Amino acid sequence: MKLEKAQLVIQGLKEAGVDFTAGVPDAQFIEVYKMLADDPDIRYVGTANEAEAVGVGFGAWFGGKKPALILATSGLLVATYHLARINILHEVPLLVVIPYRGDIGDPRWLGLYKKTTEPGLNAMDIPYRIVSRPGDIVRTIKECNESARAWLKCIAVILNEEALW
Q1: Contact present, 152 and 95 (Cβ < 8 Å)
Q2: In terms of CB atoms within 10 Å, which of 34, 69, 133, 142 comes out highest?
Q3: Closest CA to 108 of 61, 164, 24
Q4: For residue range 21-50, what is the model confidence (pLDDT) as tens digits?
């Protein structure tokens, strides 16, 4: 991910009012994780796996924070049960930001993720937006977070290759 695009993700989180993030660093979002670790306005908690990140985000919400999860595409699969349970049973508004591996334009074909990302989100009743243009990153993160809070639902922002590179 290019540095200037990682900065757009951080700006979007800040404009959305996010003050707490959790996740497991991955190569696709490494610049975002580095910036979060150094940012005094957004607390970042690294977790052992993405399912644990969901639990940390869940706890942060009940502790009065405004959390977001920063998950790898593969991490969405790891977190599926926990996201579904929180979204369907507990109505906790977690913003989930995901790079879209396996989408058209990905330099490596990771077809498993193309076949599981959107169907998985749909099965969990998690609305999402796919961002293709860097100019839409900040606005989309902000709008999705506003909807998550208003609807008391998890909502995902998926950044494809055009938005990332």
Answers
A1: no
A2: 69
A3: 164
A4: 999 988 888 999 999 999 999 999 999 999
CB atoms within 10 A of CB 61: 19
pLDDT tens digits for range 94-150 = 999 999 887 776 666 666 777 889 999 999 999 999 999 999 999 999 999 999 999
**51: which 2 tokens?**
């399912």
Buried b (16+ CB within 10 A) or exposed e, 7-31: ebbbebbbebebbbbbbbbbebbeb
The amino acid occupying position 22 is A
Cα 23 to Cα 111: distance, rounded to the nearest angstrom: 23
Strands (E), 16-75: 20-23, 43-46, 67-70
User: Which CATH number does 3-164 carry?
Assistant: 3.40.50.970
SS3 85: helix
Q: Rounded to the nearest 10 degrees, how much is the dihedral formed by the CA atoms of 94, 100, 102, 103?
A: 120
